[in-house]
């Protein structure tokens, strides 16, 4: 008789209450150079605190020195400068996180991240290893362009790049900083595509002019990369959601690779993103829509043993989210998971926190389709059953899964 998913969970799930209990997970990651840590929501405290705990262990015990998050590059650079003491200005973690001004601010401007970046600063201040914190998302088009102009005005006020940067900024300014205006109004003859490509090429060809001990060359290059890929992303919004999704995730992989190239290809990186980005898309129904994601692309680009992906989920609790796009956040109740979904199975096998490792001995047991909960920054609990579950083959999508039975909303600043 074929073992049911519920029976498989009972056989292989391991309980945990402390970071020491998760030692088998860290051991299973082996010598991976990429550890991808997911989340089922952008507003659950436990996802942030357990990822932070795992990240600290990876830094201290396995030599990881890079953290890439699903956030804007310019805002995350303020964190990077803080934890590396690039600025002589004395700041507190909560002050630094005020740099995350674009909605949804709560994703990174929260108490859980404030505590984490304070730890990172203390670690960097007392250890020779300088851990970096970087944002890899594509949304910061205008902020990235302003940062480029500001930086080049200081270090290369008469070069080709500053003139190109001003042209690009002027091109986008005509759309009143509203991406939808650009997407709706632009045609190829009026687009900023050529200008952003020229700007990135100029900065790449003159990297040595911007090199210093504060990573200015990397900062300029990634901001220019954001501008180029964001232009394509916003232009694609009128085509299809699938195309724009792929452009965004391909950009995040490109940013990850640029960061690793800058610090050396042997550098080890931890990626914090939603499960829908770090869990391989080809193990979900996303594949049928022609969609890819960060987890799938990184697996395709690297050896299997170099990539380790950990999904996170919850059965019920509370969460920070918004009822619609760009509205103020609310503390919402997450209802119990829908029957016969992944989260429901994990709950029914014991209402406690647990984790699963997927490996050759149990791979086939979990290589079956099951609904897997996903909550974004916009959420309506009343209609959860209609769009918050992604059919997935769990052992193909992740290498491990961490389950919080009853979770709590994070604490926005």
Automatic annotation (TrEMBL):
Bilayer-crossing regions: none
Cited Pfam families: Erythro_esteras
SUPFAM superfamilies associated with the record: EreA/ChaN-like
InterPro entries noted in UniProt: Emycin_Estase, Hydrolase/PRTase-associated, UCP036794_erythomycin
Protein name per Swiss-Prot or TrEMBL: Erythromycin esterase-like protein
């Amino acid at each position: 008789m074929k073992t049911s998913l519920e029976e498989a969970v009972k056989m292989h799930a391991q309980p945990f209450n402390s970071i020491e209990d998760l030692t088998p997970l860290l051991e299973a990651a082996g010598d991976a150079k990429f550890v991808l840590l997911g989340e089922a929501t952008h507003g659950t405290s436990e996802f942030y605190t357990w990822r932070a705990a795992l990240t600290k262990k990876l830094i201290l015990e396995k030599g990881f020195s890079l953290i890439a998050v699903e956030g804007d590059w310019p805002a995350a650079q303020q964190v990077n400068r803080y934890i590396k003491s690039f600025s002589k200005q004395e700041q507190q973690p909560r002050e630094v996180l005020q740099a995350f001004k674009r909605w949804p601010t709560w994703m990174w401007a929260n108490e859980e991240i404030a505590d984490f970046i304070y730890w990172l600063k203390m670690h960097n201040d007392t250890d020779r290893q300088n851990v970096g914190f970087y944002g890899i998302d594509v949304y910061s088009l205008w902020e990235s362009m302003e940062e480029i102009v500001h930086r080049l005005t200081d270090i290369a006020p008469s070069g080709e790049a500053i003139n190109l940067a001003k042209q690009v900024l002027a091109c986008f300014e005509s759309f009143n900083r509203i991406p939808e205006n650009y997407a709706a109004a632009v045609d190829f003859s009026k687009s900023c595509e050529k200008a952003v490509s020229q700007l990135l090429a100029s900065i790449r060809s003159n990297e040595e002019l911007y090199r210093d001990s504060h990573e200015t060359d990397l900062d300029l290059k990634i901001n220019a990369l954001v501008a180029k890929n964001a232009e394509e992303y916003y232009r694609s919004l009128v085509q299809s959601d699938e195309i724009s999704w792929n452009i965004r995730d391909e950009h995040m992989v490109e940013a990850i690779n640029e960061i690793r190239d800058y610090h050396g290809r042997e550098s080890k990186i931890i990626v914090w993103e939603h499960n829908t980005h770090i869990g391989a898309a080809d193990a979900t129904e996303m594949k049928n829509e022609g969609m890819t994601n960060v987890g799938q692309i990184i697996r395709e680009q690297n050896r299997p043993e170099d990539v380790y992906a950990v999904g996170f989920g919850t059965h019920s609790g509370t969460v920070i989210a918004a009822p619609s796009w760009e509205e103020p956040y609310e503390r919402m109740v997450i209802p119990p998971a829908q029957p016969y979904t992944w989260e429901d199975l994990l709950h029914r096998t014991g209402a406690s926190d647990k984790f699963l490792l997927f490996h050759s001995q149990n791979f086939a047991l979990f290589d079956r389709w099951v609904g897997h909960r996903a909550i974004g920054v916009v959420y309506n609990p009343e209609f959860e059953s209609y769009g918050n579950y992604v059919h997935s083959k769990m052992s193909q999508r992740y290498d491990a899964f961490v389950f919080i039975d009853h979770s709590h909303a994070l604490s926005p600043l």
